[in-house]
Write a structure and sequence with these properties.
Layout (H helix, E strand, L loop, with lengths): L1 H27 L18 H11 L9 H16 L5 E11 L1 E14 L7 E7 L10 H20 L7 E7 L7 H9 L6 E9 L3 E9 L5 H9 L9 H9 L5 H9 L2 E9 L16 H18 L13 E6 L3 E6 L3 H21 L5 H32 L1 H5 L8 H23 L5 H22 L7 H17 L5 H30 L4 H21 L3 H21 L9 E3 L2 E5 L4 E6 L35 E5 L8 E9 L3 E9 L6 E6 L5 E6 L2 E3 L5 H8 L6 E7 L7 E8 L12 E7 L2 H4 L10 E3 L7 E7 L6
Parallel strand pairs: 2-19, 3-4, 3-5, 5-7, 10-22, 11-23
Antiparallel strand pairs: 1-2, 2-4, 6-7, 8-9, 11-12, 12-13, 14-15, 15-20, 16-19, 16-21, 17-18, 17-20, 21-23
Length: about 800
């Protein structure tokens, strides 16, 4: 009896162990180890050498126009020249429309490794400016810059001349609207020869580096090259490619594609998103294995494209593609998606027909099968939705997180996922004695076929998700035709083995969904997890492993809940976003402190009381993007001189009116913002002689400009020199009867990040606090109305 129980326990444990092992390996095989590039040989990439560069360029914030920005540029020029390259600074105004018209006089670093022929070139791209106003930029994008530096040094050490030119482009003002890329792609003579670009980015400080493609046509050539380059850790799939094309997120590579018809690859690690654009984007927080993953991509693809034929790298065909662990990349044409789905549907219909004829399916059985599955899906999604709604109450930091990913976010994911598994198992255990394994599979595969049908119509890049279904169809066929010839143990083993592809393909996608889209996507992720479990459960049911897995998940839920509670509070590493700005209205000589913090803290309490939370008069400083004033109070005006603004003349046609405006700062200034307090139909904008086009964002412009009685920021100009003057030409459409007024109501805001210099009595933020990211902070802002009425 004891031996029988022991063997039964082993049979129950092994399937759970095997499935968890595959799930674990599908995650841990995504990137290299921290010591993957520990060699000091000249001809091999060294992470430590890359970090020596990072120590120099990510010591302090180095956003456009600061002394640190200039120091970083000079350092990079020197290091490239040490490698024997003729590095230069390409200075040109870059202008772009992203939510508003944005421009700056950019200073981009350009160098070239000459090829045997100079007709075609590979570009290696990253940016050296950090985000406003407090981020050291170690990951974004210091990691990309040093990966290129060390990767190029390694390539040159091998003393092999490439067939194609290799152009190094370290762009400027990426954080201010992709402005450096705009300048290089549209105005540098080398840009016309670039056929493929590799762009290295980061949207967090850790995790694997995902591959996202940018192409105006099909992805076939890009995918085939990626597969042929012998990358050790290829992390890419066409689902991410399809989703990325639907999102508004842009990188420098977007400009290469839109303006230069240059296709290429984005490589970006996105985990630990809470560090993005904050003081915590530091060298200490950068995961070395994430940088090593960037190095893996760069070395393999530089070696490949250095000698590849780039003369015809365009394609009209799209491929479905996905990686299997870190072993290989599998791809096939989009045109296969529907036939594979039809094959799956045909097998399901035939097997179901045979099952009904052989008496293995009956109405009550099928009803119970669908009930178990649908009840699981609805319950899991519903619980996740309710729980997410409660999170801001349980953890105020959840509501305060500007990233939609809290410091305890990984533990929250673990808690939600483990509870979802517990719930699914609990529901299925209610039906085990009422439904056959055939009926459970029949219902699960049917729902998966519906999902794949929708994906084939609207998201064909996800076509590979039919593959797990095909494996489970093999089990379905086997149960229908040969169940009577197999023992329960054999069926259990076959079912578990056929479920492994589902775990290998779906588990990393589900986890990366939440990492990529934030905690708000947990409802969708838990729903997908329930669907994945429906493919895994047949094997666990036959192996009698459900109770074991359920109790294991209870333990995981308890641990992750405890860790989530412990990690919920702010501390030295987990800092609370805290916002303060000073605004002086030069028209009325009234001044205000204002903040977008959700709650007051020890820093903001210097300026406000709880009663300060009230509705902010938008015309004082219009909200834009993520900014929304939550606290404000009147302040004592200080003596700061507004910019000198001259409206030199106005030209009119029958349908438009043009204003020429010159802006000259009278004090050190970092940024000019121009707002319209009335509806305005902008025809064209030229800044410092550079026409600003909407590029691929025409729809975004139309949405922005079509707001009823629109008021808000219409222009951002970042100064690369503290007292740089700006010449603006603004052409607007004349309004007809009952339409918008001809005369715009324009307000200029001059922003400088010198709040502590102007107010030495302000106590700096203490432990556990940081400047709030993604918008202006710690700034002195001068507001002045432009006099356009008499021009």
């Amino acid at each position: 009896m004891t031996t029988t129980r022991f063997s039964g326990a082993i049979r129950a444990i092994f399937p759970v162990f095997l499935l968890l092992l595959v799930a674990w390996f599908s995650i841990t095989s995504q990137k290299p180890a921290e010591d993957a590039y520990a060699s000091n040989k000249d001809s091999e990439f060294s992470t430590e050498r890359a970090f020596v560069h990072l120590q120099q360029i990510a010591q302090k914030p180095h956003f456009v126009g600061t002394d640190e920005h200039t120091k970083v540029r000079d350092y990079l020029l020197l290091e490239l020249r040490k490698l024997g390259l003729q590095a230069e600074v390409f200075s040109h105004v870059g202008g772009h429309f992203r939510h508003s018209y944005m421009a700056a006089n950019t200073h981009n670093i350009i160098a070239k490794i000459p090829g045997k022929q100079s007709e075609h070139a590979l570009a290696l791209v990253s940016h050296y400016d950090s985000s406003l106003h407090s981020s050291p930029g170690a990951s974004d994008a210091g990691s990309g810059v040093v990966t290129i530096l060390e990767g190029i040094r390694t390539f040159l050490a091998k003393q092999q001349q490439p067939d194609n030119d290799i152009i190094i482009i370290i762009t400027d003002a990426e954080e201010r609207g992709l402005l450096g890329a705009k300048a290089v792609v549209n105005h540098h003579p080398w840009a016309k020869n670039i056929k493929v670009a590799l762009n290295f980015e980061a949207r967090g400080s850790g995790g694997p580096s995902y591959t996202l493609l940018e192409t105006n046509a099909g992805n076939k050539k890009l995918v085939e090259a990626f597969a042929a380059a012998d990358i050790q850790y290829p992390l890419a799939n066409s689902l991410m490619y399809s989703v990325y094309k639907m999102l508004p997120n842009d990188t420098d590579l977007t400009i290469f594609r839109e303006d230069g018809d240059i296709q290429g690859y984005n490589f970006a690690f996105i985990d630990d998103h809470f560090d993005y654009h904050t003081v915590n984007d530091s060298i200490d927080n950068l995961d070395k294995s994430s940088l090593n993953h960037q190095a893996d991509y760069l070395q393999a693809l530089v070696a490949y494209f250095a000698v590849a034929d780039l003369s015809d790298f365009a394609s009209e065909q799209d491929l479905v593609f996905f990686n299997v662990f870190n072993w290989t990349l599998i791809s096939y044409p989009f045109s296969w998606v529907v036939p594979m789905l039809l094959l799956a549907c045909g097998l399901w219909l035939w097997s179901t027909f045979v099952a009904v004829r052989r008496g293995k399916l009956y109405i009550a059985d099928v009803a119970f099968g669908f009930t178990a599955l649908l009840l699981s899906i609805i319950s899991v999604a519903g619980l996740a939705f309710v729980s997410l709604s409660l999170l801001p109450t349980l953890w105020p930091a959840y509501a305060e997180s500007p990233h939609n990913f809290t410091y305890n976010g990984h533990y929250i994911i673990g808690l939600f996922f483990s509870v979802s598994v517990i719930l699914v198992i609990s529901i299925y255990r209610l039906f085990i004695n009422k439904v056959s394994l055939v009926a459970l599979l029949m219902a699960s595969i049917f729902v998966w076929l519906i999902v794949n049908g929708a994906l084939a119509l609207y998201l064909p890049g996800a076509g590979f998700l039919v593959i797990p279904v095909l494996f489970m169809l093999l089990l379905y066929l086997g149960l229908v035709h040969w169940q009577h010839t197999l023992t329960q143990s054999q069926i259990a083993s076959i079912a578990v083995v056929l479920a492994l592809p589902s775990v290998a393909l779906l588990w990393p996608l589900i986890t990366s969904l939440v990492v990529g889209l934030g905690l708000k996507s947990l409802v969708i992720a838990c729903l997908l997890l329930a669907l994945m479990m429906s493919l895994v459960l047949p094997g666990l049911i036959m192996a009698k492993s459900l109770a074991l897995l359920q109790w294991l998940m209870v333990s995981v839920a308890a641990v992750t809940a405890s860790m989530a509670i412990q990690a919920a509070d702010y501390n030295v590493r987990q800092t609370k976003p805290s916002s303060i700005n000073y605004l002086i209205n030069s028209d009325s000589n009234k001044a205000y402190w204002f903040s977008s913090s959700k709650r007051l803290d020890s820093f903001t309490e210097q300026f406000f009381t709880q009663g300060s939370q009230q509705d902010w008069p938008e015309p004082l400083y219009p909200s834009y993007r993520r900014t929304k004033v939550t606290f404000f109070a009147e302040a004592k005006p200080i003596n700061v001189e507004p910019a000198k603004v001259t409206v030199s003349h106005a030209e009119q046609t029958s349908s438009t009116i043009t204003y020429d405006v010159q802006i000259e700062p009278q004090r050190d200034t970092n940024m000019f913002q121009l707002a319209s307090l009335s509806a305005i139909d902008i025809v064209s904008v030229t800044i410092n002689g550079q026409a600003i086009t909407t590029g691929g964002n025409t729809i975004a412009k139309a949405q922005f400009m079509s707001k009823p009685a629109a008021m808000g920021m219409i222009m951002h100009y970042t100064l690369s020199e503290p007292r740089e003057s700006v010449q603006l030409q603004l052409t607007i459409a004349k309004g007809g009867a009952g339409a918008m007024p001809v005369m715009p109501q324009l307000v200029l805001f001059s922003t400088s990040y010198d709040l502590y210099q102007q107010f030495p009595w302000v106590k700096p933020r203490g432990v556990g606090l940081m400047p709030e990211p993604f918008h202006v902070n710690d700034a002195v802002i001068i507001r002045q109305t432009l006099d356009v009425a008499h021009h």
